[in-house]
Specification:
This protein is mainly α and 65 residues long. It has a domain at 2-37. Helix content is 38%, strand content 9%. The protein has 2 helices and 2 strands. Strands 1-2 form a two-stranded antiparallel ribbon. The chain binds zinc ion. Zinc ion binds next to helix 2.
């Protein structure tokens, strides 16, 4: 099965019996992304998510006398 990467427009061959080919055939709204593009996007996403600050909801502990 020939598939085209949505980002780089390279054409790749997938085995007809592979799980990814079956998913693409059965779910037409799914898009194919090659491994190079997937690793590139994952690297950028992880760098963005590591920069995000998570607000802290911890209450300040006060000392009662
Ligand atoms: Zn690609």
């Amino acid at each position: 099965m020939k598939v085209k990467c949505i980002l780089c427009d390279d054409i790749h061959d997938l085995l007809d019996n592979s799980l990814e080919a079956k998913r693409l055939r059965n779910h037409l709204d799914k898009v194919y992304m090659c491994s190079d593009c997937t690793s590139r996007i994952t690297k950028k996403t992880e760098s963005h998510s590591s920069d995000r600050r998570i607000p802290s909801f911890k209450k300040k502990q006060t000392e009662f006398i």
